């Protein structure tokens, strides 16, 4: 008679399990029209509002529009990912999933894929609206503009997944915005060039990923071909997103013994 074998632990990452998790999250989001509107419609409305607020200053629209095209997706995906993941934690869904042979990397990859699908749609719509309908004038390729917007949205998703581990309610998740997003917004170079900041503030801005998101958009605004600085900025944003996703996997744990 064979002894009863213990369940085998899940592998570090299984594409099949990650895709199954992503499909489940997408099915849930499909029944939440307010969340879909926040991810898809709100960034586009903000860009339209920006265009007509600065209607008399087209240069201002180009400068701010390129930067905000990267910032808006980051902020909205941060909000949606943090709140949606927190619901999974507080409803007990993560408790049940972690009791299955499902690796933490599978869960994080699944969430990232699900929100990444919306990030792609959001970035395509926002970039297309800005360039072809609102007349955003950038020297670089619109495809590179789309790439940076997508990387920023994925960074926002990663940050949202990470901070959801430290909130006990949706209200607390929203409260993380002043701590995580607002300092980056003030120091990213949107309101004043980072080179003119106090050395201490400049040093802080150098370690904040949103600074490189804005820098990448600025490179596309002024250069027709990709520059070394653009490649560096894009790689830094990508690396930050992957690092935060890894930290998010480390925070996934059962809340009950």
Automatic annotation (TrEMBL):
Subcellular locations according to the entry: Cell membrane
Gene Ontology cellular component annotations, sorted alphabetically: ATP-binding cassette (ABC) transporter complex
Keywords: Antibiotic resistance, Cell membrane, Membrane, Transmembrane, Transmembrane helix, Transport
Residues in ABC transmembrane type-2 domain copies: 30-255
Signal peptide feature range: none
Membrane spanning residue stretches: 36-54, 66-86, 107-131, 143-166, 173-192, 234-252
GO MF, any single term: ABC-type transporter activity
GO biological process: response to antibiotic
UniProt topology in membrane: Multi-pass membrane protein
Membrane listed as a keyword: yes
Record-linked InterPro entries: ABC-2_transporter_component, ABC2_TM, ABC2_TM_bact-type, ABC_2_transport
Family indicated by similarity: Belongs to the ABC-2 integral membrane protein family.
Protein name: Transport permease protein
Organism: Streptomyces murinus
